[in-house]
Amino acid sequence: MERKVWGSAANDSVGLLAYYNQHKSKYLWGASADVIIFNCNSKKAATQSLEALQQGKSWKKIAEESNTTIQADSGRYEIAQLALESGSEIKAGTVTPIVVNPADGAAGFIKIIKVYPANEQRSFDAARGLVINDYQLILEEKWIDELRKKYPVTVNEGVFQSLLK
After folding, report:
1. CA atoms within 13 A on the CB side of 48
2. Which pTM does this prediction carry?
3. 3-state SS string for 26-63
4. Bridge partner list, 112
5. Burial letters for 61-93: b for 16+ Cβ neighbours within 10 Å, e otherwise?
6. Which sequence spans correspond to the domains of the chain?
7. Which tens digit of pLDDT belongs to each residue from 41-83?
8. Three-state DSSP class for residue 154
9. Of these four, 29, 102, 116, 144, which has the most CB atoms within 10 Å of its CB?
10. Distance (Å, rounded) from C-alpha 80 to C-alpha 146?
11. pLDDT single digits (tens) 88-132
């Protein structure tokens, strides 16, 4: 599997791009947004981060200066992937309320940078992981068909019937 399917799919950039181009309609964004996600080790750290962000401090600088108490990252996510309270307003510039995890006291919030409508085309780079997964399934099916042709399965009826008794 590693050699014939997983490694082959991940390393076949020409095949992946061709597959993506043939199946572009499968790789559309749902309603999505560019966001900055803050994960903090406490509500106090989250509150300090939010205040610094509102004062215009760079989110990268906030994370760098936190001495690992704050992790922040940006990216485009589908709205359904974000931990938002139902009914939350989703528009550029919105910052979600701080949410505290009761199990460990960790806290976080999300700043929404830009909102995109559903059904926009994902670029090849944005869809790469999904394309690799789909391409692996195709390679696996072909490999299994080759194995079936090379090693046909035969059932010894006498032994099979003895097992049923």
Report:
1. 14
2. 0.75
3. HCECCCEEEEEEEEECCHHHHHHHHHHHHCCCCHHHHH
4. 35
5. ebbeebeebbebeeebbebeebebeeeeebeee
6. 2-26+121-152, 32-116
7. 999 999 999 999 999 999 999 999 988 899 999 999 999 999 8
8. coil
9. 29
10. 40
11. 778 999 999 999 999 999 999 999 999 999 999 999 999 999 999
What is the token pair recorded at 151?
A: 């090693």
CB 29 within 8 A of CB 116: yes
Q: How far is CA 151 from CA 139, 145, 146, 155, in A?
A: 18, 10, 8, 13
Q: What is the signed CA dihedral for 104, 105, 106, 107, rounded to 10 degrees?
A: 150
Q: Is 66 helix (H, G, I), strand (E, B) or coil?
A: coil
CATH architecture of the domain formed by 32-116? Roll (3.10)
Element (H, E) at 111: strand 107-116
